[in-house]
Structure formats: structure tokens, C-alpha cells
Amino acid sequence: MDDVRPSQWLILISGALLFAFSFMEVFKDSDNAWKDIGTLTMPAIFGLIAAIATAATVFGKAKLPDDVLTFSFAQILVVLAFTSVLIEIGAVGMGLFSDVFDAAAGAWLSALAAIGLLMGTVMEQEGGPTRAAASTPPSPF
What we know:
The protein has 141 residues and is an all-alpha fold. The protein has helices at 6-21, 42-58, 73-97, 105-126.
């Protein structure tokens, strides 16, 4: 577990939290995101996909395909996370600026988890910092 990067931890935790928060009340006086499978269910599914794919590669040493329709798997996870952020921010915005809906804790927490998922997938797609060997001297600017 020492070789797990912070970006991978962020994807694992945020994806699991995004799925867990989907069972909370999204809007006051309404049910959770799973009452009707629809738009508010998609971020939970995307977070679960990202967490399972990351866990499979980190802990299970699974080899994911290099390219899927000319996209790397890391790029696909960024797209899923970005879509989750858009949907969750839209739900929170609908609760803030609408007289009909009032955002509950589930919407706010899901939005925060989706933002964390996006941050982790972007960090993972960029490669993140690599650890330098202990015997390597620091390099000049």
C-alpha cells in the first residue's frame, strides 16, 4: 500500500463517497437519487466506476486497455468525473436558485465528492509527481 499515489487515494475515497451520498436526500421533502434512475443517479455510477477501476489497477494489479476509442483510460475517468461535477453542481444550483426545489445535505455532499473525484482524476491523468531516488541530488532550475 506504500505505492498508492495520493491521486489514487483521492479517486478511491471520492468515488466511494459519491456513491454513498447518493443514498441521502437530494432535495428537501424528496427521496434519494435512486428513487427514479435518471440524471442524479449517473454521478453515483460514474464514481463507482472510477473507484472500482482504480482499485483494480492499484490493488488487483489489473491491466486496463491502453486506448479505448483513441482515449486513454485516465482521460475517460476525467470525462466521467467532469460530467459528475456538472450534474451535481446543477443539482445544487437548482436548489439554490429555484423556488420549487431546496437542496438537502445529499446534494451538497455529493457535489463536494464529485469535485474531489475530478481533482483526483486530473492529477492521475497528469501523472502526478514522481518520487526521486534518495541518491539523486536535487536538480537546478
